């Protein structure tokens, strides 16, 4: 049994966080899905992340990675194996189809994907546009403005 969380008090005291709060509310309602393939999410720097997925039994061309807006989708579909004379007595390596979705924060971008020894590593970076980065605003006083205005007025008189 899951406890529900009421986000109403947060809506009253925050501005612009409604999308995040709605995502948290939705995440609490989604039933726990299949947990294959296993994966790790690692924070490697202030704005750098990596997702490592253990995809044993799949080859590099069996995997696809797409980023659709703020969702990263990793899919695996094993190519059909040609018929062989071998008979499996036990098949423990999964190699089954999967689709794993990761919700990304705004301005997250996949920068690299690397596959080696059955481990898929996806590198992500948060790249905030210059226009959205904090900037310092200069504060001027009324005396500074008055001093700046005098030379401009005199320059206009000389031009006339």
From TrEMBL:
- Which key words are in the record? Stress response
Stored PROSITE patterns? SHSP
Record's keyword annotation contains DNA-binding: no
User: Which parts of this chain are annotated as the region Disordered?
Assistant: 139-160
SUPFAM superfamilies in the record: HSP20-like chaperones
Domain spans labelled SHSP: 30-142
Residue stretches in coiled coil: none
Q: Would you say which domain of life the source belongs to?
A: Bacteria
Q: What family does the Swiss-Prot or TrEMBL record give for this protein?
A: Belongs to the small heat shock protein (HSP20) family.
Instruction: Please give the name of this protein.
Output: Heat shock protein Hsp20/HspA/IbpA
Report the source organism.
Answer: Acidomonas methanolica NBRC 104435
């Amino acid at each position: 049994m899951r406890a529900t969380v009421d986000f109403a008090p947060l809506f009253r005291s925050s501005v612009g966080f409604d999308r995040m709060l709605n995502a948290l509310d939705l995440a609490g309602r989604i039933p726990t899905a299949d947990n294959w393939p296993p994966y790790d999410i690692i924070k490697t720097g202030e704005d750098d992340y990596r997702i490592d997925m253990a995809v044993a039994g799949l080859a590099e061309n069996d995997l696809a990675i797409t980023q659709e807006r703020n969702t990263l989708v990793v899919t695996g579909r094993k190519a059909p194996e040609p018929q062989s004379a071998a008979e499996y007595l036990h098949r423990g390596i999964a190699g089954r189809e999967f689709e794993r979705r990761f919700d990304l924060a705004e301005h997250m971008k996949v920068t690299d994907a690397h596959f080696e020894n059955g481990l898929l590593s996806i590198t992500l970076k948060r790249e905030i546009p210059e226009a959205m980065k904090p900037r310092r605003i200069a504060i001027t006083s009324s005396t500074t403005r008055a001093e700046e205005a005098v030379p401009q007025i005199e320059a206009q008189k000389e031009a006339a």
